[in-house]
Each structure stands twice: as structure tokens, then as C-alpha cells.
Fold Beta-1,4 N-acetylgalactosaminyltransferase.
Amino acid sequence: MRVNRKLCFVVAVLVPMSFFCFHMWTKSDKVVAVWNREAPEDLLDNSPLQPLEKYAGISLKWKSEVLELLPKSNCKCEAETTLDIPFRQELIGKPYAVNFTASMVPLGIDETHKRRELEYKKFLMRSYSPADKIIVAEANSPLQYPLQGVEVRPLKTILIPGLGLLDLKKKQNYEVSLSCTLGTLNVAAEVDSVTIKGAGEKQITLSSSLLDNLNRQLQLVSYSNTVFNPNTADTVQFQSDGHTATFTIKVRHPTIPKLYDMGPTKSKYNISSLVTIATKTFLRYDKLQDLIDSIRKFYPTITIIIADDSEKPQKIEGPFIEHYIMPFRKGWFAGRNLAVSQVSTKYVLWVDDDFIFCPQTKIEKLVDVLEKTSLDLVGGAVREVTGYYTTYRQIINVIPGDKEGDCLKTLQGYHHIIEGFPNCVVADGVVNFFLGRTDKILKVGFDPQLSVVAHLEFFIDGLGALHVGSCDDVVVDHASKIQLPWSKTKTDKEYSKFRYPKSSHAVTSQHKLFYFKNRLKCMTGN
Ligand SMILES: *[C@@H]1O[C@H](CO)[C@@H](O)[C@H](O)[C@H]1NC(C)=O
Ligand SMILES: *[C@@H]1O[C@H](CO)[C@@H](O)[C@H](O)[C@H]1NC(C)=O
């Protein structure tokens, strides 16, 4: 019995431990440069417009309507009037152009510019993948190879599909070679009458007097990734008799899904288990209470998350309410970040603390859009007391510029209507009332450096990452914004002091962020 116990101890403890040690000892001490990606050259290539010498004599007629659409070598921001209607300025604001460089001059532009460009260079190196590079297949190549779609997990091995040689000339000997940089090449089997050189190395050469045998051998060529550098690509060169073909093999982990369990439900959408309402408050407890009361009329069990950075926070209590207190004046976006980070449902509905739910605030409709389309975020409409309602649909363009930076152009409007949802459109930016996929919103995040006057910034950061829509048939009311000076309460006055600061400090810091973080030099809008 005793002996048996001892034996058990040895087996149960020492064996796993020795495996553990073995594991530690087999840890690779290979040193790998993970910065070895090429940064791309200037993407703007208008060289086809200047012909090669041998084509210079060929006459042509330029089409200016197409030339105008091509990217220009440098962007400019000039306010342009897009439509001229009476009361335009009162209704939709006037066109504007802002120069961020000019805001930076008093802050020491030269040093900041140098730092920004250095960071930008690193960003390009980090975000660039060799798989994004343009590869041209030269004419008349007898080589057959995969154009795209070949993928390998980091440090794993695959057979390269689709390799072949179609040599029409009868030859004594056929030879091909393959080379790569982030891995090694080998063969899964050796075919008769084929000579193999460099198996297991970065370059492999296969030759044979029999074309069929060589082609059979090509089907069995394997690639092993040896440099763990996730989310990049290896560029493979395939050569034979003066012909060269280049293709890429993507190296990456699979995308890990992040799924939310909606739970069992009989109705179509159980809003309480699908959606959390998030808001940020500052001083305006009366307005916040109105919002909560209005939500409870329609959604009695939905969770409401409140981020609060008031100086003397008041208690907000009730079922399904989470109240997070932050340091005084931590700011607008910091509060949004905090609130959204606490959401555990699939969707989050963003509302301002002075909104009021009404019978047209149908969250189900917004959920339906996100469930049935590839959109990540969909905005509604905010109705003012005047009855006028706004969706604040924006189109955002970043136009390539020069060393000073790129140009940001925002336009009121949208891209197109969404099929099956006649009230919904695709845009780049929407109003402060939106439903979004929680994980996607967290990925973009709200930059906590923006303490006041911010909204569009989130959509600029999300450009290309967030697929945005807007529906004007889901409406929330806005507690009166138009107020007579003498009807303002003490809280209102204090609130406006912080929310609409008189100093230009907030504006300058916003310009600084545009200038440095987004590498923009100026902005226009209408
Ligand atoms: C912005 O202002 C700076 C300094 O005043 C000037 O050098 C620059 O050319 C301007 N940039 C644009 C895009 O207008
Ligand atoms: C909806 O979800 C909530 C929270 O997950 C749950 O308590 C409730 O029973 C569900 N209601 C229905 C009708 O399924």
C-alpha cells in the first residue's frame, strides 16, 4: 500500500514536472527580427500618365471628367459652398475650412512635426502587410502558381497549392526554383527522376528531364513558416528559365470569434438581454432622472450604465442601474469609454443624458438592422422641441496630402440606402444616439484625451473599421436646448461653463490631436 502511494506520488507529481522542465528546455532561443517588414513606397502612382518611350508617339485624348477623379499629389482644404439656399447658414450651418498646422505654430511646430513623422513611419511599418503589395504577373510566363488565398498559421506547414510548369519547348532538362524569406521550403515526397536541391532551406531547386514528373513533384512542395511574426506575409518567388512569378503566403492566426449568448427567448428579440444603455452625465441629475424615467416606461428591465464625473456626485439608485463615479471633470470621451467598457451585452445603445425616450424610440428596429446587415453601428434621429429632427449623417473623406499631413473632408450626407430598410442609409458618421456592436465600439474606443466638444472624432478614429448606418424612423427626444437666459437654472449655468468653454484651449487641443494622432493638416466641412 505504502509503496503504491509513493509510486502514485512519483507518477502524479514528478512526471508532469519533468514534462514541464522538458518544455522549458526546448524553448527556442532563436532570435527573430519582427521589424523586418518593408514600409510601402508612396502609394500614389500616376506614372501610367507619363508613357514609356516606346509608347510616346501614340496619340490619345484625355478625359478630364475622369482625370479629376484620380487622387491628386497633394490635398488642400478650401471651404466650398455646395448648395445655395435661403437661410442655409441657420438651417445646416456654413461651410468651413480649418488649418491644424496654424494651430500648432505657437506650440513649436518643428519639433512636433518631426516627432509625428517618426511615429507615422513606425505606424506604416506596423500596419503594412507584404500581402497588400501590388504584384504584376509578367506576360508569357509558363509558370502556374496561386495568385492569392494561400495562408499558413505561424510556425506551421502547408502544401503550396497550384504550382506547375507548362513548357511548350521540348527540352533536355526542366528546372524550377522557389525561394522565400520567412520560412523554408521542402517536399512531402520525392518523385522519381526529379533532382531536389536545398530541401528544408529558403531556396529549393527541382529539376528533371521529365516534365510530368516535375509537375507531380511541384504538387508536393511544402512551405513551413519559421519566423513567428503574426499577421504578415511571406513573398515567394517562383522561377524557371528566366521567367519569374511572385506570390504571397499570408502568415496569421485564425480570428478568434467573440460571441454573445442571447439566451433562450420566445419573442423575436429580448432587448433586456441584448442591449445595454450607456450614458455619461455631468451635473445634470434632473435631466438624467427624466431620461431614466422615460426609459423605464418602455424598457423596465434594460440595464442602464451611467458614468459620472461631477464634483459632488449624487446617488442614482434603482433596479438595473449601474452608476460609476469618476474623478471630477475626467471628461466626455473618458466617460463614454468607461460606460461602454462595462457593457456585457452584444449591443450597446449610446444616449446623451438629456435625451427622453418616446413611443418612436424603438430599439428593436435598430437591433433588427444590426442583426440582418453587416453594419457595426446604426444611428437614429434626435428630435428637438421645435419638431425639427437631425440624424447628423456625415461622409468622411481623408484625402492624401504631403509631409504636412492629409486633409479631412466632412460632408453632410450619406452613401446609399440599405436594401430592405427604406428608412436607413450607409454613412461614415451619425448623431449621438446610436446602437453599436459592443466589441467593435470597444476596439475603436473613445479617445479620453478629448474632454469636451467631441463627437465626430470617434467616427474619424473608426473610419475603415466601423461600418456605419443611420435610420430616421427611430427617434429620441432632446430636452430643450433653446433656453431663454432667465429661465436657466443654476445647474444649467454651471454646466454650460464646463461644456462650452470660452477659452480656446479645448479647440487647440482638438486640433493638436487631429494634427498629431490622425496626421491631418486641415479640415473642411459644410
Ligand atoms: C496652414 O498654415 C500654415 C502656417 O500658417 C501654412 O504654412 C500652411 O501652408 C497652411 N496649410 C494649409 C493646408 O492651408
Ligand atoms: C429577457 O432577458 C432577461 C435578461 O437576460 C431575462 O431575465 C428575461 O426573462 C428574458 N425575457 C424573455 C421574455 O425571454
The longest helix spans residues 2-25. The mean pLDDT is 84. Residues 371 and 481 are 34 Å apart (CA to CA). Residues 77, 99, 101-102, 105, 521-522 surround 2-acetamido-2-deoxy-beta-D-glucopyranose (ligand 1) (CB under 6 Å).
